[in-house]
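Re: [ENG-882] Designed sequences occasionally contain unexpected residues at chain ends

Forwarding the minimal case from QA. Structure tokens:
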């Protein structure tokens, strides 16, 4: 039996949520290039209902999400206790998502809007706790993205920042059957509650081969800037040592990630607005050299590193921010898997020893 490594190319289900067919990313049939400037709430509605909302539906979606973006004081206290010891923010998020499924949920274990609102607030709270900053409160007059940014930044973002980060959240909202999404569907196929499915997804995202690439991209940019080595020489040294250069290549997109093409412009604009041009300039040199030397294009993680840094985020929080963006897609897939109502139970090919038999233990 020829077993595809990592299930590459194996179709295990049908979906109406998103597609990467022909190296084009679409949500419910709409190209990402046409969705990138829509309100985040509209794209969430699209992923969940497979149609774009009308004005009233969009208003209701926004209201419901904002109404859910709060955490009781007891939850914040417990989060503070969990975060007392130095640990990665993804470890805190993993525990908090599970905790949300057992406390202060008012019986709303399976209401996606309630869950998404709680996830966004939890992630913002983790970022604030990590920086020893007070928690902020939602302003009902603002949109979901602006409120989310306010919750983790501690100040009202500029209109341009909201516009750009709205696009970032849309671009990251879903991406077919990536590792964390597939994990969420496996758990959903057992008919587990939403929080159990999301906890599993966060655990999968925590692994450095899936999440964490944007964090490693920024570490690379910092190292180049601080050491003064040229980006080209840095890349040559990595290649010579057989080390992976994070932020490049993609199993699906061989001619370039369509999300990265959009994010490049956002990274450049945000870098200019926040005086982070040196990081973006290093990125441009690396991207040009990687294409020339190895024929590899940047992926979605590459430019988000500078975007997140420009928003004042520490690189250790980059992956939890990815989780904030991806939760809408995770929830869409959990709902779709539940409707499918089929337990995911693949087969494997046994390649170990055979024809073995237990020998009686000799008496002493």
């Amino acid at each position: 039996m020829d077993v595809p490594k990592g299930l590459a190319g194996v179709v295990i289900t049908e979906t109406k949520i998103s597609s990467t067919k022909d190296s084009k990313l679409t949500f419910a049939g709409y190209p990402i290039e046409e969705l990138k400037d829509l309100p985040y709430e509209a794209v969430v509605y699209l992923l969940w209902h497979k149609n774009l909302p009308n004005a009233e539906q969009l208003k209701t979606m926004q209201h419901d999400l904002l109404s859910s973006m709060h955490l009781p004081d007891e939850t914040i206290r417990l989060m503070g206790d969990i975060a007392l010891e130095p640990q990665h923010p993804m470890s805190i998020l993993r525990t908090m998502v599970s905790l949300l499924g057992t406390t202060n949920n008012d019986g709303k274990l399976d209401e996606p809007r309630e869950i998404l609102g709680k996830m966004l607030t939890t992630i913002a709270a983790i970022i604030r706790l990590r920086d020893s900053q007070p928690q902020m409160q939602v302003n009902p007059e603002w949109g979901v993205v602006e409120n989310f940014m306010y919750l983790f930044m501690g100040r009202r973002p500029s209109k341009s920042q909201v516009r750009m980060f709205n696009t970032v959240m849309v671009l990251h909202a879903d991406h077919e059957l990536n590792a964390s999404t597939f994990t969420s569907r496996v758990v959903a196929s057992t008919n587990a509650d939403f929080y159990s499915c999301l906890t599993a997804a966060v655990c999968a995202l925590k692994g450095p081969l899936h999440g964490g690439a944007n964090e490693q991209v920024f570490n690379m940019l910092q190292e180049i800037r601080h050491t003064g080595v040229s980006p080209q020489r840095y890349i040559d040294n990595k290649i010579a040592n057989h080390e992976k250069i994070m932020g490049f290549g993609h199993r699906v997109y061989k001619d370039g990630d369509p999300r990265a093409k959009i994010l490049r412009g956002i990274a450049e604009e945000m870098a200019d607005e926040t005086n982070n041009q040196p990081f973006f300039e290093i990125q441009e040199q690396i991207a040009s050299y990687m294409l020339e030397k190895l024929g590899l294009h940047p992926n979605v993680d590459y430019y988000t590193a500078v975007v997140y840094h420009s928003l004042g985020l520490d690189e250790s929080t980059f992956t939890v921010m990815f989780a904030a963006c991806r939760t809408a897609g995770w929830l869409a897939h959990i709902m779709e898997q539940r409707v499918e109502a089929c337990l995911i139970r693949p087969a494997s090919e046994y390649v170990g020893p055979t024809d073995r038999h237990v020998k009686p233990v000799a008496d002493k």
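QA comment: On inspection the terminal residues look reasonable. The chain has 16 helices and three strands. Proposing we downgrade this to a documentation issue.
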